[in-house]
Structures are given as structure tokens and as C-alpha cells.
From TrEMBL:
Coiled-coil segments: none
Gene Ontology biological process terms from the UniProt entry: rhamnose catabolic process
MF terms (GO), sorted A to Z: racemase and epimerase activity, acting on carbohydrates and derivatives
Lineage summary: Bacteria, Bacillati, Actinomycetota, Actinomycetes, Micrococcales
Record's protein name: L-rhamnose mutarotase
Pfam families: rhaM
InterPro entries hit by this protein: Dimeric_a/b-barrel, Rham/fucose_mutarotase
Organism: Microbacterium rhizomatis
Length: 128
């Protein structure tokens, strides 16, 4: 059976204290195995973090239900412990990093735009 669920793409921004970037990187190489399991169990996949030299942190993941994924992690004792340890790395943050990040609006996605302009099979055959 084929799923018709479209994954939600989520991108967010945080700011790591530039003086703590090396320590932040060390804490993510590697992330606790039990935290990795919780992220996957929440329904998040294709999860990546990107960090600039100035501390700008951009995160990205895909999920079928972001509300459920957030609720799962909010209730997870492992995630609470991880987020508590990570909170001190961030500048201007109120609360847990995973619940206080600035959500970014998607303005372009190649696949979506290609799908919108690609010819349908019926229009392709009329061009021949």
C-alpha cells in the first residue's frame, strides 16, 4: 500500500555562543545513542544540524506529524536530560532548545517547483 502522506519539512535556527562552538561540536560527536533512538522514535528523519563559525545553528528534519514528534520529545526523560545539558550553549534562549528554536519559513523546494512545471504525460505526447 502506498502512503499519500506528504512529509513536513522543518527548518529552525538557534544561536550557539561563539566561544562555546568547539565544545558544542564535541558534544555532538557523537550524540548519546539513547538520544538518537528517541529522535528516531519521535518520527523525525533526515535530521541534520549545520553550524556557522559565528554560532548560527540551522537544523532541518522531516516528519509526517511534527506536533506528535514535538510532543513525544517533550515527554521524553532522555530528551529532557539532553536538552538541559545543551541549553547553556545557546544565546538568547528561553526554555529548552528543542522547544524554543525559531522556525524558518520554507520559500523554495526544488522538487515541488519541478513537479509544478513538468509536463504531464498527455502534454508530452502532443509535443511530438
Amino acid at each position: 500500500m502506498t502512503s499519500t502522506t506528504t512529509a513536513t519539512r522543518v527548518c529552525f535556527q538557534l544561536h550557539v555562543d561563539p566561544d562555546r562552538v568547539p565544545e558544542y561540536l564535541a558534544r555532538h560527536a557523537p550524540v548519546w545513542p539513547e538520544m538518537l533512538v528517541e529522535i528516531a522514535a519521535s518520527g523525525r528523519r533526515n535530521y541534520s544540524l549545520f553550524l556557522g563559525d559565528d554560532g548560527t545553528l540551522i537544523g532541518y528534519y522531516e516528519t509526517d506529524d511534527d506536533t506528535a514528534a514535538q510532543a513525544y520529545l517533550a515527554a521524553s526523560p532522555v530528551a529532557a536530560r539532553w536538552e538541559s545539558e545543551m541549553a547553556g550553549f545557546f544565546v538568547g534562549l528561553d526554555g529548552r532548545p528543542d522547544q524554543s528554536a525559531i522556525a524558518l519559513t520554507e520559500v523554495f523546494h526544488l522538487h515541488d517547483q519541478l513537479a509544478a512545471v513538468s509536463p504531464t504525460p498527455s502534454t508530452e505526447s502532443t509535443r511530438s
